[in-house]
Write a structure and sequence with these properties.
- By secondary structure, this protein is mostly helical.
- The protein has one domain.
- The protein has six helices and no strands.
- The longest helix has 48 residues.
- The chain is elongated, with a radius of gyration of 20 Å.
Length: 170
């Protein structure tokens, strides 16, 4: 019985370490997808003069999950707006936040961008998109640095923490 408990304990802590490491490895990919989404948004708004809902639908078709779901939901909610654009943006971000591998700094950048979205003329909107892209570039560099430093460490720490707990309990 003790042996089965020990295996379960080590498996559980190893899984936690692997899951945290996976989130660290996934974050740079999701930031790249966000940058791609903003570049699509830039083209749709500046060159096609598309509305925000149509732009969000176009983005959702060109990027992968879970971020495509975010843009699809924003577009869906804006088709028949009952709330402001920022409220829709923020609510959808909050609703799907747990499915993202992003951190709170990334969330602040997206919220800040959401505040400016649709409030300015095309030229000002272009500046806000470029500003958000530069912030995301900085976050991408940070995410890559953290992934390179800590991802393998968290996998090992999960297992080692399980062994440590097992030794304490014996």
């Amino acid at each position: 019985m003790k042996f089965i408990g020990a295996i379960i304990l080590i498996t559980a802590t190893s899984y936690m370490g692997i899951e945290y490491s996976r989130k660290m490895e996934e974050r740079p990919r999701q930031i790249r997808i966000l940058k791609n989404a903003l570049q699509i948004m830039h083209a749709e708004i500046i060159y096609s003069h598309s509305s925000i809902p149509l732009t969000c639908f176009a983005i959702s078709k060109q990027i992968s999950q879970p971020l495509s779901l975010f843009f699809y939901n924003v577009g869906q909610d804006l088709e028949h707006p009952t709330e402001s654009l920022y409220k829709v943006w923020k609510d959808n971000l909050e609703k799907l936040w747990d499915s993202f591998s992003l951190i709170n700094n990334d969330k602040e950048i997206l919220l800040q961008f959401g505040r400016s979205l649709g409030k300015h003329d095309v030229m000002q909107q272009e500046k806000h998109i470029k500003l958000c892209l530069s912030h995301l570039e900085r976050q991408l560099e940070e995410a890559l640095d953290q992934r390179n430093r800590y991802a393998k460490m968290f996998k090992s720490l999960g297992f080692l923490f399980g062994v440590f707990l097992l030794l304490l309990l014996l």
